[in-house]
Amino acid sequence: MGTDDKIDAKSDQLKGKVKEGVGAATDDEGLEAEGKGDQVKGHLKEGVEKVKDAFKKD
Question: How far is Cα 1 from Cα 15, in angstroms, rounded to an integer?
Answer without folding.
Answer: 20
